[in-house]
Amino acid sequence: MDEQQRTLLVLDIGSSSVRAALYDGRAQPIFGASISREHSLDYSEPGAATADARTLRGLIETCIDDLLTHPHAGAITAVCAAAFADSLVGLDERGTPITPVYTYADTRSAGVLGDLQGRFDAEAVHQRTGCVLHPAHRPAKLTWLRQINPALFKQVAEWVDFPAYLYRAWLGEAHSSFSLSAWSGLLDRHHLTWDKPLLDAR
Length: 202
Description:
It is built from 8 helices and 10 strands. The strands form 3 sheets. A 4-stranded mixed beta sheet has the order 3-2-1-5, with helices on one face. Strands 4-7-6-8 form a 4-stranded antiparallel beta sheet. It is an alpha+beta fold. The chain is elongated, with a radius of gyration of 19 Å. The termini are far apart. It folds into 2 domains: 1-83, Nucleotidyltransferase, domain 5 (2-Layer Sandwich), CATH 3.30.420; 85-201, ATPase, nucleotide binding domain (Nucleotidyltransferase, domain 5, 2-Layer Sandwich).
């Protein structure tokens, strides 16, 4: 099969819609091969910006199912995806979401920044992770979530980004890309591992 005959399935997971599309081996869009579904984040609480993981997954799967009826779908050789910056969802031991998907736009963890800045050298954290201490990133979100609902926090077996949840649901294991991990504020960019001082913080 030459490059022109190859088909790529591309997923675009945004904060207001999800889309699935087919591209040829030269990364050109295939005519009539794009499906989208609108959705909205939950902004019902001040500072909140969350989504329901299973509902969002269902929309994506519907887009994929609809797209698989396209004549070029039989030649899919690769799948790639883009998703809304960083996100965080708690899974139980079976991989079932037991928290909402907290997006980068959720700012309710702003109240714990003073605590984090008092416990960590903010500049050292910035140098290790490439991220400042900020409500968009996971150190603040995880600290806040532990404080507001410690019982639920203890039930979470694994915290992952939303694409990693999809990866686990579809393929059995949760894997996160370096690009999304770099957004998290928890990736040690020098060693490409999770930052131990931040992970060990309680």
